[in-house]
Amino acid sequence: MIKNLLQQFNLTDTVTHYTIFGNGLINRTWVVDTVDNKYILQRINDNVFTNPAAIDENINAINQFLKCHFPEYIFTAPVFTSNHKSLIHIPGEGYFRLFEFIPDSHTYTVLENPALAFEASQQFGKFTKLLADFDSSQLKITLSGFHNLSLRYTQYTTALATSSAARLSIAQEAITIANTYVHIVETYETILANPLFKKRVTHHDTKISNVLFNSHNRGICVIDLDTVMPGYFISDVGDMMRTYLSPAGEEETDMTKIEVREPYFDAIVQGYLSQMNTELTTEEKKYFVYAGKFMIYMQALRFLTDYLNNNIYYGASYELHNLHRAINQLTLLQLLTQKEDALNKRVSVFAAQYQ
Ligand code: GN1
Ligand code: MG
């Protein structure tokens, strides 16, 4: 099947090797070696992304804008087939696209030091900043309600009302804790009504493996644009906090290993402000720590909801997997909340430095 697919890019004769690549929960990715080049092949999960054409249109629209206004920016645009298509549908197999592998680039699945966090945050800030004059309302919505915390909360309360007694009982403690953070949803609703919060081109999946680094560990660009949509900066900064602050990630089941590391917090804020300081409003800059709480709470609710709904969305390698992931995120949320005042003070100092 892969060979048949690559034929459409006139690559079959020269493919030497291909292998599964990366560790995303949603799409499936392969790295393909040919005699003279290297590619990334990806199948879009169309149970999740029900309109793959929307992803394809977004990435091509952004590519055109960047090529025209910032030609020196390295951007991973999809390769076109001999029929001028960048998205291929194979009935029964799914939707596929191919990217050129950027030479001498590498990614991290584990964040090794704050300097990498700074580089990553700078790249996500740069991406939004370069696209400041691109009309974000032009982008197609690839996942409706993706970072809508009110919707995620409603999905959670629906799951509470429909889940089995057995699951509700097993998850009781996590549910009790999750319910104490509902104020994070209320704050989100004030943001929606606040004209000082701007909608910009937002990546919505800022984990470290979505940044390419060069051999000197400087950031090159961001990748995985499937969830690029109009959004608020709290999505991108918040998901960096969710995934960079703790040395133990969302899969960790020993909750004592979860921590909020201040040097990583500083790196995220400084990296982002190095690009976005003049774009963000003074009001928005008050919400850096909130951004972390917003994304961590949303992910906790999504994992907990999935556990209550019999693990229908995220994969689960054992029955309690999504419950453990939810408890992990609630633990991180508690630790971040404890440091909130101290961290907010650091943001004000950094914002003043970048004036
Ligand atoms: C999913 O597939 P992956 O790992 O890039 C999810 C994110 C979650 C993440 C949690 C489309 O991302 O929102 O934060 O899992 N993406 C989608 O690991 O639901
Ligand atoms: Mg992703």
From TrEMBL:
<dbReference type="InterPro" id="IPR002575">
    <property type="entry name" value="Aminoglycoside_PTrfase"/>
</dbReference>
<feature type="domain" description="Aminoglycoside phosphotransferase">
    <location>
        <begin position="18"/>
        <end position="251"/>
    </location>
</feature>
<dbReference type="Pfam" id="PF01636">
    <property type="entry name" value="APH"/>
</dbReference>
<dbReference type="InterPro" id="IPR011009">
    <property type="entry name" value="Kinase-like_dom_sf"/>
</dbReference>
<protein>
    <submittedName>
        <fullName>Phosphotransferase</fullName>
    </submittedName>
</protein>
<dbReference type="InterPro" id="IPR050249">
    <property type="entry name" value="Pseudomonas-type_ThrB"/>
</dbReference>
